[in-house]
C-alpha cells in the first residue's frame, strides 16, 4: 500500500509551520505564496513539498505563473468573518484533501484524502494516482460564485483531464465537483483477477489511515485513525456499513454488492484520532449507470505506523474490461467533507417536530392486503440510511387497483393536535413504478376513520427522501368527516397499481422517522432577503439563451433533447431576458416568431417545432398560464423599449382571449391558482382597458385561493397540496397589491415544506410541489427572485451548477412521477430563472397604471 504521503502532522517530514497551517487552517507556510486573494478567498502556490516529487504548471485566469508547484492551497473566510482556514489542497500527485470551513471543538484538521481517478491494474502493474501536469485556475465567478479549475495529467497509459467546480465553502461543508475525462493512448487490457476482486479500475478512491479505534499512536490522543468506517446503500436498498475495527486487515467488504445509491462514505464516527477530529468524506456520483455496474470495495493493510495510508476505499466500475487506443470515457462526482457523517435532512434542519416512530424499538407494524386480491407481502426491519428502517416487500400482480399496505398501530392513540403536517422518510424501488397512498387513521368512539392521500406513479424513486403531507390534504376515504389529530390510532402506507403507466408486480418500499411538525406557527422573516447580483454569471446565461435561438426565432427549450421543441412559456421568459439585456436582434426575432405562432383567436399552443419555419405545434393544447406569460413578456418587451410593430398587436390579441377565460365570479373558468396568478400579472400589464378584469382576478386570488389560516396559496379552491409557483409568483402578486407580510408568509411556507437535498446530499434547493420529490432549479431561482429567506445561499447552489457556457440544468437528479419531471438536461427555463435571481427585480416589474408599485425589491 502507499506510504502516507500527506500526513499533515508529521513535523519531521513537513515542518512545524506546515503542520500548523494544515491542522489549524492558518496562513500558508513560508514556502507558499498567495497568487490570488479577494474578500473571501486566498489561493496559494507551494513550489515544493518533501513528500511530493512531482510538480505542475499553474495558470491563473490565463496568465502563466512563474514556476511549477507541488501543491495548491485554497483558503476561505469563515462565516463569521474572523478566520481564513485552508479548506482544500490539490497535490501534483493527484491527491485532494478537503475540510469544513470552520473548526468546532475539537478542531477539524485534514485527514482522509481523495485520489483523483481512474486508477487501474494492467499487465500486473498498478497505476494508483495520476501525475498532474497543469492546473488552470479561473476566478471570474469569485468571490460569491464557485472557483473553477481545469487540470491535466497522466496515469499510466491514460491521459486525464479534470474540470473542478468548488462552491464557496460554508462552516459546515466543503465541496468539489469533479468531471473527469480519461483517454487511452494505447490499448489497455485490465487484469482479469483484479476485475474479479472489484479492484481492476477505480473511478475515484479514498486514501486514509486506521491503526486502532481507541489506543494512542506515537502521540497523545484516543484513537489512531483518520477514518474508522465506511458505508453505502446497495442495490437491494439496504445500507452496508463496516467498522474498520471489525475488519483487522484485508477486504473492507467481505461480501460485495453493487452500489444502489450514488454515494460512498469514509466515516469518522468519533471526534478522536491521531490528528484529531478529521472530517467525514463522501464520494457522490452524478448518476448511476443504468446497468448498476459500480461496486464499492476497499482494502486495509494491518500496520502500527500512523504515517502510512493503510486504508484504500474506492468505487469500482464492473462494466469495463479495458480500453482501445484513443477511447475516452468520463465520470462526474462530488467530494464532500464535513464534521459529522452526512445526514442531509438533519443538516438542512428538516428534522423538527415530533418523531413518533423511528423503528429503533418495537413497533406494531404489519402487512395488510385485500383478501380478494392476489397480492402478497412481508414487513420487516432493514438497515436504513443511518439506522433502522421498516421495509415492505410486495407483489401486486398485474390487476388494476391491486394494493399492498404496511400499517402501524398506536396504543394509546397519538395526540398530534399541536401539529399540522405529517413528514416521514421513504425510499422506493427503481424496478417498481407504482403509486403511493398515505394515510392517518383517527378514532371517534369505536369508529376508526381513514384519511388519506394518493400520489400517482412515484414508488420508483429509489433514494431516501422525505414526504410532507399537510393534515388538511388528507381526505376521508369513506364518509364526509373532519380529521381529528388528537386521536391518531394508525399510520398506513399503501403501494397501488393505479393505471396502465404503473408497473404492478414485485417491489419494495422503506419508511423511517415518522414525524409531525407545526408549520402555521413558523417565524416569518421581518424582511425580504436581498440576493446578490452577478454580472458575469448573468451575462453568460443570456449568451447561452441566445445560442439556443434557431433560425425560426424560437429557442430550443432543452439543449439535449433530440428534437427541437420550443415551449411557449420558455420563449416568453427568454423574451424578458433579451429585452432587459438590450439584445434587440434576438428579442425582435422572438417577437416575430411569437406573432407568427399566435392563433387567430389570440391564444398560443403549448409548444412548437422550432426547426420548421411554419412553426407547427408540437403540443397542440392551450394553457392559460403560458398565454398569460406571453402577454406579460410582450408588455415587458414594450416597456423596455422594444419596437417590433407586431408586439403590441400580439399582446392585445392575447389579452382579449385571456379576458374571455374569466367566469361570472371573476375567477378563471379553470380552478387553478397558478394560472390565476399568471392571468393577473398579464391583464394588469396589458393596459387600462383590462383594469376591471385584473381587479376581479385580484379579488378571486385573495378570497378563493389564499389560505389565511396557513399563510400560503392553495393549489386550488379546495386543493391543499403545496406548490412552489403559487408561493413565489404569488408572493410577488401579494407585494404588488400591498400585502407584504403575507408575501413573506407565503415564501416561508415554501421554505418549511418544499426544501430538500439532492440525491447525494451534495446540493439542495426546492421542489415544485409536495412530495417534495427532487430538486428543481427553476423553482429555486423563482424563490431567490422573490426574496425568500436565505436567498443568497440558494443562489450559490444554482451558480455551482451553472456550466461554463452559461447553461443551468433542470436538476441534479432525473425523476418523473407525482406530476413532476426533473432532468439533468440544460434548459431555457432554469437558465432564465438563474438570470432573474441575479437581476432583481426582474421579472415582475411596475406597469404604468397599476394601483400600487409592482416590484420585487431586493431590500439591500
Q: What are the main properties of this structure?
A:
860 residues, Beta-galactosidase, Chain A, domain 5, 50 strands, eleven-stranded mixed sheet, Glycosyltransferase, disordered N terminus, twelve-stranded antiparallel sheet, Jelly Rolls, 32% strand, alpha+beta
Question: How would you explain this protein's 3D organization?
Answer:
- The protein is built from 16 helices and 50 strands.
- It has 860 residues and is α+β, with helices and mostly antiparallel strands.
- The protein folds into three domains: 332 residues, Beta-galactosidase, Chain A, domain 5, CATH 2.70.98; 164 residues, Jelly Rolls, CATH 2.60.120.430; 304 residues, Alpha/alpha barrel (Glycosyltransferase), CATH 1.50.10.
- Helix 6 runs antiparallel to helix 7 and helix 10 runs antiparallel to helix 11.
- Distance N to C terminus: 55 Å
Kindly state the percentage of residues in helix: 10-25%
Dominant shape = globular
Look up the CATH topology of the largest domain.
Beta-galactosidase, Chain A, domain 5
User: What's the CATH class label of the largest domain?
Assistant: Mainly Beta
- Backbone CA Rg: 28 Å
By CATH, the architecture of the largest domain is named Distorted Sandwich
Number of helices: 16
Amount of beta strand = 25-35%
What does the average pLDDT come to? 93
Q: State the low-pLDDT regions, or none.
A: 1-30, 848-860
Largest β-sheet summary: 12 strands, antiparallel
Count of individual domains: 3
Estimated structural class: alpha+beta
Count of DSSP strands: 50
Task: Break the fold down into its secondary structure elements and pairings.
Elements: H1 11-14, H2 16-24, E1 33-37, E2 41-46, E3 57-60, E4 63-64, E5 71-76, E6 86-91, E7 95-98, E8 113-115, E9 119-122, E10 125-127, E11 131-138, E12 147-155, E13 158-166, E14 174-184, E15 188-189, H3 192-196, E16 201-208, E17 210-212, E18 224-225, E19 229-234, E20 239-243, E21 250-251, E22 259-267, E23 280-285, E24 294-300, E25 311-317, E26 322-323, E27 328-338, H4 344-347, E28 354-357, E29 364-369, E30 376-383, E31 388-395, E32 403-414, E33 421-427, E34 435-444, E35 447-455, E36 465-470, E37 475-476, E38 488-496, E39 506-517, H5 535-547, E40 565-567, H6 568-581, H7 584-597, E41 607-609, E42 617-619, H8 624-639, H9 647-659, H10 673-686, H11 691-705, E43 706-707, E44 712-713, H12 724-736, H13 740-753, E45 755-757, E46 764-766, H14 777-785, H15 791-801, E47 808-809, E48 815-817, E49 820-822, E50 826-827, H16 828-838
Parallel strand pairs: 3-11
Antiparallel strand pairs: 1-2, 2-5, 3-4, 5-6, 6-7, 7-8, 8-16, 9-10, 9-16, 11-12, 12-13, 13-14, 14-27, 15-26, 16-25, 17-18, 19-20, 19-22, 21-24, 22-23, 23-27, 24-25, 28-39, 29-32, 30-31, 31-39, 32-38, 33-36, 33-39, 34-35, 34-38, 35-37, 40-41, 41-42, 43-44, 45-46, 47-50, 48-49
Helix pairs in contact: 5-6, 5-16, 6-7, 6-8, 6-16, 8-9, 8-10, 9-10, 10-11, 10-12, 12-13, 12-14, 14-15, 14-16
Amino acid at each position: 500500500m502507499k506510504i502516507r504521503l500527506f500526513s499533515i502532522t508529521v513535523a519531521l517530514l513537513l515542518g512545524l509551520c506546515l503542520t500548523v497551517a494544515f491542522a489549524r487552517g492558518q496562513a500558508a507556510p513560508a514556502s507558499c505564496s498567495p497568487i490570488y486573494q479577494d474578500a473571501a478567498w486566498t489561493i496559494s502556490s507551494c513550489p515544493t513539498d518533501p513528500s511530493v516529487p512531482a510538480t505542475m504548471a499553474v495558470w491563473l485566469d490565463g496568465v502563466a505563473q512563474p514556476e511549477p508547484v507541488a501543491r495548491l492551497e485554497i483558503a476561505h473566510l469563515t462565516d463569521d468573518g474572523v478566520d481564513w482556514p485552508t479548506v482544500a489542497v490539490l497535490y501534483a500527485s493527484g491527491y485532494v484533501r478537503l475540510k469544513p470551513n470552520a473548526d468546532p471543538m475539537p478542531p477539524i484538521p485534514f485527514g482522509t484524502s481523495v485520489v483523483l481517478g481512474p486508477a487501474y491494474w494492467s499487465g500486473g502493474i498498478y497505476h494508483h494516482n495520476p501525475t498532474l501536469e497543469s492546473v488552470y485556475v479561473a476566478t471570474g465567478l469569485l468571490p460569491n460564485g464557485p472557483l473553477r479549475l481545469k487540470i491535466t495529467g497522466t496515469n499510466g497509459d491514460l491521459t486525464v483531464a479534470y474540470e473542478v467546480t468548488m462552491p464557496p465553502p460554508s462552516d459546515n461543508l466543503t465541496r468539489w465537483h469533479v468531471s473527469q475525462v480519461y483517454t487511452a493512448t494505447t490499448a489497455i487490457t485490465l487484469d482479469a483477477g483484479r476485475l474479479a476482486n472489484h479492484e481492476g479500475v477505480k473511478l475515484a478512491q479514498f486514501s486514509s489511515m486506521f491503526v486502532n479505534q481507541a489506543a494512542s499512536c506515537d502521540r497523545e490522543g484516543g484513537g489512531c485513525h483518520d477514518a474508522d468506517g465506511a458505508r453505502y446503500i446497495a442495490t437491494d436498498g439496504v445500507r452496508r456499513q463496516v467498522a474498520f475495527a471489525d475488519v483487522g486487515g484485508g477486504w473492507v467488504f467481505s461480501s460485495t454488492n453493487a452500489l444502489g445509491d450514488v454515494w460512498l462514505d469514509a466515516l469518522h464516527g468519533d471526534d478522536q484520532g491521531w490528528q484529531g477530529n478529521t472530517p467525514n468524506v463522501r464520494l457522490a456520483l452524478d448518476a448511476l449507470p443504468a446497468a448498476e455496474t459500480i461496486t464499492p470495495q476497499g482494502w486495509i493493510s494491518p500496520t502500527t505506523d500512523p504515517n502510512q495510508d493503510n486504508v484504500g476505499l474506492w468505487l469500482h466500475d464492473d462494466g469495463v474490461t479495458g480500453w482501445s487506443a484513443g477511447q475516452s470515457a468520463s465520470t462526474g462526482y462530488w467530494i464532500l467533507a464535513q464534521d459529522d457523517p452526512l445526514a442531509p435532512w438533519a443538516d438542512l434542519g428538516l428534522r423538527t417536530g415530533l418523531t413518533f416512530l423511528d423503528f429503533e424499538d418495537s413497533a406494531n407494524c404489519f402487512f395488510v392486503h385485500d383478501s380478494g386480491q392476489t397480492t402478497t407481502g412481508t414487513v420487516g426491519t432493514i438497515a436504513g440510511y443511518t439506522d433502522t428502517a421498516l421495509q415492505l416487500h410486495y407483489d401486486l400482480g398485474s390487476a388494476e387497483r391491486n394494493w399492498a399496505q404496511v400499517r402501524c398501530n398506536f396504543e394509546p392513540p397519538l395526540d398530534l393536535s399541536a401539529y399540522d403536517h405529517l413528514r416521514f422518510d421513504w425510499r422506493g424501488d427503481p424496478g417498481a413504478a407504482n403509486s403511493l397512498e398515505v394515510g392517518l387513521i383517527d378514532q371517534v368512539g369505536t369508529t376508526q376513520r381513514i384519511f388519506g392521500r394518493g400520489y400517482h406513479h412515484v414508488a420508483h424513486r429509489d433514494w431516501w427522501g422525505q414526504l410532507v403531507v399537510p393534515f388538511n390534504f388528507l381526505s376521508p376515504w369513506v364518509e364526509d368527516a373532519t380529521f381529528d389529530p388528537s386521536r391518531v390510532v394508525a399510520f398506513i402506507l399503501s403501494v397501488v397499481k393505479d393505471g396502465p403507466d404503473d408497473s404492478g408486480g414485485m417491489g419494495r418500499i422503506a419508511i423511517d422517522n415518522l414525524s409531525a411538525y407545526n408549520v402555521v406557527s413558523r417565524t416569518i422573516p421581518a424582511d425580504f432577503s436581498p440576493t446578490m447580483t452577478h454580472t458575469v454569471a448573468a451575462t453568460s446565461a443570456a449568451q447561452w439563451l441566445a445560442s439556443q435561438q434557431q433560425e425560426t426565432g424560437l429557442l430550443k427549450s432543452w439543449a439535449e433533447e433530440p428534437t427541437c421543441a420550443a415551449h411557449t412559456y420558455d420563449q416568453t421568459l427568454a423574451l424578458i431576458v433579451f429585452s432587459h439585456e438590450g439584445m434587440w436582434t434576438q428579442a425582435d426575432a422572438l417577437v416575430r416568431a411569437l406573432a407568427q405562432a399566435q392563433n387567430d383567436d389570440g391564444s398560443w399552443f403549448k409548444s412548437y417545432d422550432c426547426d420548421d419555419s411554419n412553426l407547427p405545434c408540437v403540443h397542440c393544447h392551450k394553457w392559460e398560464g403560458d398565454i398569460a406569460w406571453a402577454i406579460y413578456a410582450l408588455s415587458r418587451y414594450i416597456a423596455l423599449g422594444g419596437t417590433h410593430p407586431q408586439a403590441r398587436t400580439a399582446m392585445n390579441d392575447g389579452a382579449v382571449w385571456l379576458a374571455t377565460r374569466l367566469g361570472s365570479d371573476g375567477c378563471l373558468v379553470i380552478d387553478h391558482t397558478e394560472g390565476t396568478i399568471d392571468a393577473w400579472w398579464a391583464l394588469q400589464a396589458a393596459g387600462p382597458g383590462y383594469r376591471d378584469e385584473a381587479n376581479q382576478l385580484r379579488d378571486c386570488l385573495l378570497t378563493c385561493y389564499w389560505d389565511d389560516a396557513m399563510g400560503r396559496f392553495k393549489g386550488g379552491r379546495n386543493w391543499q397540496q403545496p406548490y412552489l409557483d403559487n408561493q413565489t409568483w404569488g408572493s410577488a402578486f401579494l407585494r404588488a397589491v400591498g400585502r407584504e407580510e403575507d408575501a413573506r408568509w407565503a415564501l416561508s411556507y415554501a421554505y418549511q415544506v418544499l426544501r430538500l437535498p439532492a440525491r447525494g446530499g451534495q446540493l439542495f434547493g426546492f421542489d415544485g410541489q409536495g412530495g417534495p420529490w427532487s430538486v428543481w432549479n427553476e423553482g429555486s431561482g423563482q424563490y431567490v427572485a422573490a426574496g425568500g429567506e436565505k436567498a443568497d445561499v440558494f443562489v450559490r447552489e444554482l451558480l455551482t451548477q451553472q456550466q461554463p457556457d452559461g447553461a443551468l440544468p433542470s436538476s441534479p437528479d432525473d425523476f418523473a412521477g407525482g406530476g413532476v419531471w426533473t432532468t439533468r438536461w440544460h434548459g431555457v427555463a432554469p437558465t432564465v430563472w438563474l438570470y432573474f435571481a441575479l437581476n432583481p427585480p426582474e421579472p415582475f416589474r411596475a406597469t404604468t397604471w397599476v394601483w400600487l408599485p409592482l416590484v420585487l425589491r431586493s431590500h439591500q
